[in-house]
Amino acid sequence: MESLVYILLVATSVVGLTFIVERGLALRWKKVIPPEIEAAVEACEGTNDISSLRRACIQHVSPLGRLLLLAADRKNWPKAENVDALQTRARHEIVRLERGLVVLEIIVGIAPLLGLVGTIIGMMTTFENVGHAGLADASKLASGIALILKATLIGLLIAIPALVSWSYYTKKVEMLAVEMETLCDEFMRRQYRETK
User: Fold this and answer.
1) Average pLDDT, the chain
2) What is the rounded distance in angstroms from the CA atom of residue 29 to the CA atom of residue 170?
3) Element (H, E) at 107
4) Nearest 5 degrees, angle CA 166-CA 168-CA 171?
5) How far apart (Å, rounded) are the C-alpha atoms in residues 10 and 165?
6) What is the helix (H) or strand (E) element at residue 47, kind and residue range?
7) How many helices (DSSP H) and strands (DSSP E) are in the chain?
8) For residue 130, what pLDDT is reported?
């Protein structure tokens, strides 16, 4: 039974590490907000400059690029309808950026609990053995308790990096969302400047 807990802890560790690395690669600033698209938004002064923005968005596929392509494709729509469509798509893009963060959040909660289960199972086994053999050799009891506490330690060593990564990536998604919103707002203001 104790070995099952260790297997689950190792599996939890592998899954956590996989999502930490995957999210680290997926949430790179340049991958979500390519500088080329950012420059194209700043250079886009009106409806005539949209072709260069479209080229940049197609060449550098990204969440920001998908949002700006949507807004550019709907430039003939009334501003309010275009903004609504953009906000709806932006929510989808944010959900895509948050993908996998819930797994890290679950690992933060489950890893220490698995360690605790391993500790409890180990303590039950150790005390059962002491009950049968008596306290003739206290060093066996001490080594048994040391072995037991390793499960809790392993659980915490899995949970701590998962917690740090989850917190960091959650904040990074928030910062990326604010920057994408700012750039999309800038694009919309420039496109609908004459309708004020």
Assistant:
1) 90
2) 14
3) helix 101-133
4) 105
5) 18
6) none
7) 8, 0
8) 74
- Residue 100 CB contacts under 8 Å (≥ 6 apart), including other chains: 19, 22, 23, 26
What is the spatial distance between Cα 139 and Cα 111, in angstroms, rounded to a whole number? 29
Residue type, 73: D
Identify whether the C-beta of residue 6 lies closer than 8 Å to the C-beta of residue 118. yes
Place of tokens 């886009």: 44
Q: How many CA atoms, within 13 angstroms, populate the side-chain half-sphere of residue 56?
A: 23
CA distances from 43 to 81, 96, 115 (A): 24, 28, 55
Phi, psi of 28 (to 5 degrees): -65, 140
Task: Report d(CA 67, CA 80) in Å as an integer.
Answer: 16
User: What is the pLDDT at residue 106?
Assistant: 96
The token duo for 59 is 């060449």
Residues 6+ apart with CB under 8 A from 159: 107, 108, 109, 111, 112
Amino acid at 78: P
Provide the token pair at 45.
Answer: 């002064």
Question: Between 55 and 48, whose confidence is greater?
Answer: 55
Q: 59: how many CB neighbours lie within 10 A of its CB?
A: 12
Task: List Cβ neighbours of 70 (8 Å cut-off, separation of 6 or more).
Answer: 85, 86, 89
- Whose tokens are 């802890």? That residue is 9
CA distance 90 to 85: 9
Q: How many residues does the chain have?
A: 196
